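wait is this the right file?? whatever heres the structure
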């Protein structure tokens, strides 16, 4: 049929007989070509179209013969003109639009040339559709092929029996196997040794039943290396509903897995020491509890806190502190069994979780070895540092049966180890629990106490050791608890500090003490200085409302030289904290004097005395208590007094209880004394009687009294 139409067309062509055989050969070629061939006579009418051209333009066989060429190629006029201009032998490439019989314009590209004849020139056009003009299905198929060849996911096509028909280049590079190596083989040849036969059986069963499967799979490279991949298998069905092909897609997820592992590690492990962190520790503790419940087992929980770690951090710097923590973590891990968990909860707090404790004696042995290991010197760069550790121990199910209570217990036991002098371990006991509960109740009561006027002030005279006159009074806070009676400040001040109540309480003490001082100033000729204890917690964080305190003094008309504030050494250690420094300076500038309380119990650093403007130094009562002629404490007191005087400070000795102590201190040149020998802390009215008497209250003339009531026995 094609050939006939070609021959018919050829007979129509008005060409020389000598050219005819060439032209016939040319057109016969057209009959077999995928490209569209189209020839016109000298008038531009179509005389030949091959099968491809008819398909392209949408004509039945022979139906387009005789049509003017511009009915098919509306833009071809320009090309024809150029062909005619440029001579018979030229072939021109062209692009342009074609007109499909039904579905509109086509984008075409092709070549055009003359067919020479004596009567004029007829033309031959060879063309094909440009890629952009592909129909949707073709375009999709082309895209699919493109993706298949270029994606980074390995793909593999199976026949319904599981034999491999094709693989894409990504598969070849993922597995390192050539096409030739796998095509034609059964998909079984790709099974990895990480999965057993049951795994693959279940996988293919799912594919048979549902047509698809996806999940994690370990792929194996030809070199033996295993890597995690995400594998999906899908099925394409034929029109008859039978399986046509199965497609397997392999994505390498090694990097994703790695990222997941890093994230998991960050969330569960401490970056500094590589130990499990609080989160992970909790998980393990819960897990151990569940296990111990099932097996009626016992768990031991140790809570460790390095003693005085903060000092090392502050003096040697955080980098050294970090090194110490790392080394401590290493030593700690070396003390325990592989199956035990050592964790860092944060800062210098560690825990050890001991599964399956048979004998409490074993724990005793362990705590001893931990204490010993951590007491070994730490070499940090050029420095050698010594620390110790306090350990609290508790057991499941003996002491508690849930994670939170166990941790609380161990924490309390650790605190009691600290309170008993550090560098030791303590087991949790019921009395610790009781103490903790009492403490909690006290905190609750403390919240109400200020509103309900349960506080009052006592004043303890401070005596000039030269003439025995009362020249100052220390303000000491008293809490009249509605049920417990008088509660010692040693007990409630730390609670007030922890809860923040100290700020309101401190303001109240200051206002009340200065109001009292202003009243005495009016009533008695003698100038009395009132000293007020300031807790470090009052100066830290937001600091004191100095303006409020200043305004208060102005309102009272009390000159600031009547007021002394007592601070402790610990506060000066915080001298890096600018706010504390500024506040102390502001006090000094306002004319308020500063006394350093409990000197000798903390860091006793004389350099602080120079760095800060301090007026008075109060020797702690622990030195005074054992004061005997020629004792070490005697030498210390003498040295402190001497040094303080050299630095221009006056000295107050606290806790003088016996005439002998008084005499030794007076002989050492101590300026002032305070203690039961002279008078106990007393309410304001009692203090007034003392002032009224105006007597020398040194030994022999003293009227030592117990006005405070509760304080006897201290
Ligand atoms: P502190 O400032 O060192 O006060 C001296 C303590 O020694 C007082 O105890 C006092 O009663 C006691 N004392 C005085 N003379 C003698 C003596 O001869 N022998 C013995 N054994 N003790 C003597 P107190 O009143 O129990 O106060 C304890 C601590 O509570 C005070 O120590 C102070 O640090 C704190 N404190 C008291 N009132 C306040 C306050 O208003 N604010 C703040 N932040 N702390 C306060
Ligand atoms: Mg004091
Ligand atoms: Mg003191």
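ok assuming it is, sequence goes like this
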């Amino acid at each position: 049929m094609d050939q006939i139409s070609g021959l018919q067309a050829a007979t129509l062509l008005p060409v020389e007989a000598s050219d005819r055989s060439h032209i016939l050969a040319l057109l016969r070629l057209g009959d077999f070509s995928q490209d569209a061939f189209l020839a016109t006579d000298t008038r531009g009418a179509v005389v030949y179209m091959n099968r491809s051209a008819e398909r392209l333009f949408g004509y039945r066989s022979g139906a387009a013969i005789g049509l003017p060429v511009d009915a098919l190629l509306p833009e071809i006029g320009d090309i024809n003109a150029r062909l005619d201009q440029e001579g018979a032998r030229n072939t021109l490439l062209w692009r342009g639009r074609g007109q499909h019989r039904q579905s509109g314009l086509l984008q075409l590209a092709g070549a055009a040339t003359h067919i020479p004849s004596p009567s004029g020139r007829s033309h031959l056009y060879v063309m094909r559709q440009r890629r952009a003009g592909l129909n949707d299905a073709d375009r999709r198929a082309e895209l699919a092929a493109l993706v298949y060849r270029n994606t980074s996911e390995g793909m593999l096509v199976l026949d319904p029996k599981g034999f491999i028909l094709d693989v894409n280049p990504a598969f070849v590079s993922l597995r390192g196997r050539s096409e030739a190596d796998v095509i034609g083989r059964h998909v079984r040849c790709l099974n990895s040794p990480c999965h057993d036969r049951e795994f693959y059986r279940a996988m293919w069963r799912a594919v048979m039943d549902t047509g698809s499967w996806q999940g994690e799979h370990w792929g194996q490279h030809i070199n033996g290396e295993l890597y995690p991949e995400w594998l999906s298998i899908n099925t394409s069905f034929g029109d008859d509903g039978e399986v046509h092909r199965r497609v397997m897609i392999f994505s390498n997820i090694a990097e994703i897995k790695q990222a997941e592992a890093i994230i998991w590690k960050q969330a569960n492990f401490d970056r500094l020491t590589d130990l499990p962190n609080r989160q992970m520790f909790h998980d393990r503790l819960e897990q151990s509890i569940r296990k111990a419940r099932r097996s009626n087992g016992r768990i031991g929980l140790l809570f460790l806190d390095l003693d005085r770690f903060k000092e090392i951090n502050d003096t040697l710097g955080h980098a050294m502190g970090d090194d110490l923590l790392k080394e401590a973590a290493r030593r700690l891990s070396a003390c325990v069994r592989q199956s035990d968990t050592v964790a860092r909860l944060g800062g210098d707090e560690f825990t050890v979780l001991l599964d399956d404790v048979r004998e409490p004696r074993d724990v005793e042995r362990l705590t001893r070895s931990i204490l010993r290991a951590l007491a070994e010197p730490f070499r940090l760069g050029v420095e050698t540092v010594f620390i110790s550790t306090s350990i609290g121990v508790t057991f499941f199910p003996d002491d508690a049966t849930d994670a939170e209570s166990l941790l609380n217990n161990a924490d309390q036991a650790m605190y009691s180890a600290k309170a008993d002098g550090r560098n030791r371990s303590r087991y949790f006991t019921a009395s610790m629990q009781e103490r903790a509960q009492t403490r909690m109740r006290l905190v609750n009561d403390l919240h109400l106490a200020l509103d309900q006027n349960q506080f009052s002030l006592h004043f303890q005279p401070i005596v000039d050791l030269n003439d025995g006159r009362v020249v100052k009074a220390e303000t000491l806070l008293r809490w009249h608890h509605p049920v417990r009676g008088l509660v010692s400040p040693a007990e409630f001040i730390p609670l007030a500090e922890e809860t923040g109540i100290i700020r309101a309480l401190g303001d109240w003490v200051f206002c009340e003490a200065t109001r009292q001082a202003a009243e005495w100033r009016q009533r008695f000729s003698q100038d009395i200085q009132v000293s007020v204890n300031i807790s470090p917690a009052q100066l830290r964080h937001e600091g004191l409302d100095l303006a409020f305190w200043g305004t208060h003094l102005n309102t009272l008309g009390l000159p600031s030289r009547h007021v002394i504030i007592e601070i402790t050494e610990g506060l000066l250690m915080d001298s890096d904290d600018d706010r504390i420094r500024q506040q102390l300076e502001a006090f000094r500038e306002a004319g308020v004097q500063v006394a350093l309380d409990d000197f000798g119990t903390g860091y006793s650093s004389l350099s602080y005395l120079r760095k800060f403007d301090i007026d008075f130094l109060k020797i702690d009562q622990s030195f005074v208590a054992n004061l005997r002629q020629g004792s070490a404490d005697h030498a210390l007191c003498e040295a402190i007094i001497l040094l303080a005087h050299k630095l221009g400070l006056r000295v107050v000795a606290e806790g003088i209880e016996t005439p002998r102590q008084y005499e030794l201190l007076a002989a050492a040149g101590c300026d002032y004394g305070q203690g039961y020998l002279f008078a106990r802390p007393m309410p304001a009215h009692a203090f007034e009687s003392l002032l009224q008497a105006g007597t020398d209250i040194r030994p022999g003339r003293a009227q030592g009294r117990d006005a405070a009531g509760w304080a006897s026995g201290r």
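The longest strand covers residues 104-117. so i think its the right one actually
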